[in-house]
């Protein structure tokens, strides 16, 4: 909207060029160009860019605008109209996945605004629930009837077949009814509704040498007609057909039901307005070392971030795209507070217990550095108070409009293991996830136990309803070449990768559906005001 006018006799002829950056690399690469729209300062570009989206990665984007003056593909031959920088997460995390930002880049000029919308491609998300039965199948067993099961194959581009589903075996019958089963459309036919699906019928044998009864072919499009005369299939055994003149078939298979279910995705909730609230808790125990010494994990190096700062920035900069007010509570634990030296396990880093919110990740960093100067590192290392702090907020909004992520950064050995397990088991019923980043050289065995990937965490005989804790040691991510951008990107990727699934597991268990996305944007009609 309102692009600069660079043409003397007519309006500009704009094009938009999109650039992306590789992870840990500052170099911009051209990703694609829109079409050119002639003679307008308010173009609506039609060509879409299809990109891979990962919640756990920060994908930097740059949109450059040019006024096209000739047929040359070389951009330096055209007039630059300005540019806009953002991340893919920023677009997706904006209300209705629609971001409006000013165009910048030409000093002293208003360059207009750009509106970017994103939508998730949906064809890959459907799954189907199908049920089949069969009639009068060939008898294959000497003593009883057959024990039939079905095997489904999807066809590949090269004409080969890949197995994608096996039903259970129904014992001793020639008229089996199999249980309904669910399969993703991608697995069944790669999203191509007319691709051949081959179904084979076998008689199960204990020794694994299952007897072939026959086969038939169909397609997603045929199956989607549901139960009807079109979905009764003759089971044919080509060998028998070749040998016997009177051969009709080896029985029939009938589709009893066909139900399409669209799997809702993480982005459906984000688009519908669900906010992700990010809270950070930092370990101020004495085992970190004196902050004024270079050996300390809290050392305030004027030239580069310490491990706490890196972990906080790596995770925070990605999550902040999904939080519209960008206000983050920041807590500390394990320190003695001024003026009286009392030990606290949930103090506000900004010094304001009534309002522990900091503005943006930079605000959190600032409050962290300020706290280091004013509190005394002490102990012990208690996690339960900060987990319960976030749980109190999470338990007040269970309608799916908010989800809470707590990042705990710690140097190690935990003192209140029993209480922490109890807190996590209780929190697993709430809309929250916990990320623990271990910094420094300590043994982190206890943290692995909290992670619950191997053995689900339990407290006093009660098991956690879902796995909500993700632990990683920061030292596994330190880049040998000293490229901190790369180590931060890798760390964020690993700790955030499980969040969308944990988020969805909460919504599913609670039966919460995404809110409908707000209606698409329609530009306001400008009323022209004339100066008299």
UniProtKB/TrEMBL annotation:
Keyword Repeat: yes
UniProt domain C2: residue ranges: 1-101, 110-233
This protein's GO CC annotations: plasma membrane
UniProt-listed InterPro entries: C2_dom (IPR000008), C2_domain_sf (IPR035892), C2B_Copine (IPR037768), Copine (IPR045052), Copine_C (IPR010734), VWF_A (IPR002035), vWFA_dom_sf (IPR036465)
GTP-binding recorded as keyword: no
MF (Gene Ontology): calcium-dependent phospholipid binding; metal ion binding
GO BP terms, alphabetized: cellular response to calcium ion
Similarity-based family: Belongs to the copine family.
Protein name: CPNE8 protein
Organism whose genome encodes this protein: Anseranas semipalmata (Magpie goose)
Taxonomic lineage from the root: Eukaryota, Metazoa, Chordata, Craniata, Vertebrata
